[in-house]
Design a protein that fits this description.
alpha+beta, 3 domains, five-stranded antiparallel sheet, four-stranded antiparallel sheet, 8 helices, 13 strands, 24% strand
Length: 346
């Protein structure tokens, strides 16, 4: 992880002459994995994909190299991280470069591995503070469009490199990954980047091997369990995803694609966080106390000892006082349900 002093000097050496966006600083801080894939976006497209065992450091260095090759300073810039094991980096970078054909990737680590697993993006952010947004580079629609354009390009930028596959050698067609499900209009291309699914019969005695991936997304936790049956016959891999936070399960599901599982989990987290009142009892910034149903039931305040007090609507004295917010909110919820005779909505 980059120390603040290292980040300061590294940023200064790139001569951006622009301040770093707080979203990007937060992304750098919460990305703990040292190795993986980084993607640099400009406007609405991915312009460079790289790998490193110093993910944060190298992404800023690459950004500095590319930024000065684009003359239009009004364009938005963004960076995405997809941590992975060191031994997976060639495969995931090669597959992503082939899928998106970024303009500044003039070579590919391994064409032979470029039909493998896609990187799983766990977070992305705007780069510069003066940007109004991150340009939607990593919006699913823009990723899909870039994939379509890459497939139609007979001479992608990466083909200029030396690492080209002999024409007689077929692409690997086993377990493949993509960020999106195919649509009827682009099913032919998407079939190259989806898992190859096969029917399988597993005896009751067969046990499944599970590999778990856990990461934080906007202060919520996402778990992805990769279930691989330990049998010799042909099989498919399933990915169970679970999003949790604030002591509760937010959403869960199952996909045949790890990237899609991560995307669905993050979308579920975004939907949950977009709700104005996520908890049974919400202590709002304006001092009001509101239920999940949107009902105003009183106000809250703190004293010089940080003790939190709840004053019901129409009253002048606190009904409950508590040092900790969680127990206080539970007491308020129990009180409101008892006095109203109705449960607060789930």
């Amino acid at each position: 992880m980059l120390r603040s002093s290292e980040l300061f000097h590294l940023w200064k050496r790139q001569v951006f002459l622009r301040n770093r966006h707080e979203e990007f600083t937060a992304l750098l801080s919460r990305t703990r994995a040292p190795s993986g894939i980084y993607m640099i976006g400009c406007a609405k497209e991915i312009v460079y994909i790289g790998q490193s065992n110093r993910l944060q450091w190298r992404s800023i260095e690459s950004l500095g190299n590319i930024y000065h090759r684009v003359s239009d300073t009004s364009l938005t810039w963004s960076v995405a991280f997809a941590p992975c094991a060191y031994e997976e980096m060639d495969e995931r970078e090669s597959t992503a470069i082939r899928a998106y054909a970024p303009k500044f990737n003039t070579s590919i680590p391994s064409v032979g591995k470029s039909s493998g697993r896609m990187p799983v993006i766990v977070g992305f952010a705007s780069v510069f503070q003066d940007q109004s947004d991150h340009g939607d580079t990593f919006h699913p629609d823009n990723l899909s469009l870039q994939m379509d354009l890459a497939e139609a390009n007979e001479t992608p930028p990466w083909s200029a490199g030396r690492n080209l596959m002999p024409a007689s050698k077929p692409l690997r067609t086993e377990q493949l990954f993509s960020l999106q499900e195919p649509t009827p209009s682009n099913r032919s291309r998407r079939s190259q980047f989806r898992p190859t699914l096969r029917r399988r019969t597993i005896s009751p005695a067969a046990k499944s091997k599970q590999m778990k991936t856990v990461f934080n997304y906007k202060d919520l936790e996402i778990q992805i369990n990769e279930r691989v049956p330990q049998v010799a016959e042909e099989h498919s891999i399933e990915f169970d995803w679970l999003a949790t936070g604030y002591g509760k399960t937010i959403a869960s599901g199952t996909e045949f694609d790890k990237a899609m599982a991560a995307t669905n989990a993050m979308e579920a987290c975004d939907k949950y966080l977009s709700q104005p009142y996520r908890f049974k009892i919400n202590l709002c910034d304006d001092g009001s106390v509101v239920t999940r149903d949107g009902e105003y039931i009183g106000t809250w305040e703190t004293d010089e000892y940080d003790v939190i007090s709840f004053i019901p609507n129409g009253e002048s004295e606190p009904l409950y006082s508590q040092m900790w917010m969680g127990p206080l909110c539970k007491r308020i919820a129990d009180w409101h349900e008892a006095t109203s005779g109705e449960p607060i909505g789930d």
